[in-house]
Amino acid sequence: MTAATARSATAATLVAAVMAGDNSAAPAEAAPSSGGTAVPETAADTGLRTPDPGNHRKLRWPFAIAPIRIIAPVTVFLLVISAWTVVSHFVLAADSRFLLPPPESVLSKGLLNAATRTEILTALGATVQIALTGLAIAIVVGVAFAVLMSQARWAEYSLYPYAVILQTIPVLAVVPLFGFWFGYEFGSRVIVCVMVSLFPVITNTLFGLKSVQPAEHDLFTLHGANRWQRLLKLQLPAALPAMITGFKISAGMAIIGSIVADFFFRQGDPGIGRMIDVYRQRLATEELLTALLLSSLVGLILFWAFDFLAARVDRAHGKRA
Asked: Crossing angle for the helix pair 186-209 and 236-264, nearest 10 degrees?
C-alpha cells in the first residue's frame, strides 16, 4: 500500500467516525513502543546540564497577547488626546472653545457629573437593549436565509438580489415609513437595527457555507452522507469563521441603527440618539461628546467580544487540523 493510499484510508475512517459521532477514532497521542528506542526523561538521563534560572532571568510579558497589540493603540490614543488638547487650548479662541472643549472639560462635565452620567448611561442602556435585540434577530434570520440559499440554487437566485437591495436602501429615507406602519415604539427601532445589520450576516455566512472544498464533499458523498449530515458536520463548522466575521460587522451597525432610529422616533424611553439631539440644541458639547464616545465604546466592546469568539473558533480549527 502506498503512502497516499494509506492517508486516504485514514481520512475516510475519520469521516465515517465523525458521521457516526464516535470520538474514539481521533488520533491518539504518541506513546513509546516497547520495541522502540527509549526516550530519556530527565537531564540526568541525557547527560545535559539544565540551565540555571538564576543566571538567565528574562522579563516575560505578563499577558497572553503580543505587546504591540496594546502599545500601538494606546500610543495612537495618547496622540489623539494630545492633538485634541492642543487644538482646544491653543488653536481655538476662548469664545469659540465650546465647539471643541478640552478633554478634561468633557471628563468633568460628562462623566464625573453624577446627574449627567446617570442621564447618559440610562439612555445608553435603552440603546444597547434595542441594538442587541435587533442583532440577535438579524443573526437568526441571516443565518437561516444563508443556509436556505446554500441548499437550493433557486432560493439563492430568488432571495440574494433582494438582500443586496436591502443593503442599498437609504436607512434615513425608510425610517419614517417604519414609524407610519409599525408605530414609534420599541418594535420599529428593532426593525431598523435588523435592516442595517442583516446583510453582513447573510453574505458572510453564505460565503462560508460555499467555501467547503469539493474533495471534502466527495468524501462525504462516498460515505453516503445525506444533506442534513453534510450541513451539520461539514458546512456549518467550516463556515464558522466567516459567520463570526459577519457578526462583528453587524454588531457595530446595530448600534448605529439603534441611534438612528432613536433620533427619529421620539416616543418611548429616550435612547442615546435623542439625548444627542437634546445636547445639540443646548450647545452642550461636553455632554454630546461624552454620549458619542460611550456609544463608540459599546460598539468596540461588542467587536472585541466577537473577535474573542473568532479566536477561540480559529484555535479549535487548528486543533482539528
From this structure: 160
CB crowding 110-142: b at 16 or more within 10 Å, else e: bbebeebbebbeebbebbbbbbbbbbebbbeeb
Please state, in angstroms and rounded to a whole number, the distance separating the CA atoms of residues 301 and 306.
9
- CA dihedral sign of residues 278, 175, 258, 103: negative
CA distances from 6 to 10, 33, 48, 66 (A): 6, 21, 39, 40
User: Which run of H or E residues covers position 77?
Assistant: helix 68-86
Q: Within a 10 A sphere around the Cβ of 307, how many other Cβ atoms?
A: 14
302 contacts 219 by C-beta, under 8 angstroms = no
Least confident range of 8-17, 121-130, 152-161, 283-292 = 8-17
CA distance linking residue 259 with residue 254, whole number of Å: 9
- Chain centroid to Cα 148, Å, comes to 23
Contact 275, 120 (CB under 8 A): yes
The grid cell for 140 is: 437568526
C-alpha cell, 194: 435588523
C-alpha cell belonging to residue 202: 447573510
Spatial CA neighbour of 11 closest among 162, 223, 310: 223
CA 16 to CA 28: how far, in whole Å? 17
pLDDT tens across 153-199, in order? Answer: 898 899 999 989 888 888 888 888 888 888 888 888 899 999 999 99
Is pTM beyond 0.85 here?
no
Q: How would DSSP label each residue in 172-199? A: HHHHHHHHHHH-SSHHHHHHHHHHHHHH
